[in-house]
Structure prediction request, 243 residues.
Amino acid sequence: MFKSPKKILVTGGSGALGANIQKLIKCDAPSSIELDVRDFESCRKAIKRYNPDIIIHCAAWTDVAGAEKNKKGCWGVNVIGTENMVKAALGRRFIYISTHYVFDGETGNYKEDDIPNPTNFYSLTKLIGEAIVTQYPSTLTIRTGFKKDGPWEYPKAFVDQWTCADFASERAPDIVKAALMEKLIGIIHISGEKKTIYDLARKVSPDIGKMSIHDVSVKLPEFIYLNSSKWKKISSKSSLVRK
Prediction:
């Protein structure tokens, strides 16, 4: 567990990352019924009720293929929801969880100052969320990748998509650590080592089948791993420790 005198509010607490953050540090994580990020008044009331020092905004539409079929729904959560939360935050420290998918996957090893180029609608909404958040003070955008813990959710996994994703339980500690570094603002990449999605899936489901990113209808980036050298350097110098 991390310990901090700061009050922390987590959106998307029932999601893979939000659930793991709650295991690591004391925080408030209201349900989506109480805190509907698509409704500004709901966001404002939640901020007033919990009065957090730090907000970790994990709530997101993450169904990449589904976003192509329901653009309005994806936009409502990822764009409107993000804008509502950061506006309601009223200058409090705000952590926006973004994605490695903001890049086109043509080269890989992306650094913080490389130019994003989304390949699908989901990716576009997350990048617009970044643009919104950076207009406000005391904000940190974390680009990362993670999958839900447990057996692989699908019968097959991509052999030709190179990722930096790990499982949410592996990513959550660094997310919390970064959130508590109050002087850390702007954009930071936090990710794992380069691997294929198939390699990642085999860790939890050894008999997983193989498939290609070209087997699905939505366009997916191929080389989507991030360069996290900046974070590794910052993290190594941090005095924050888990209790």
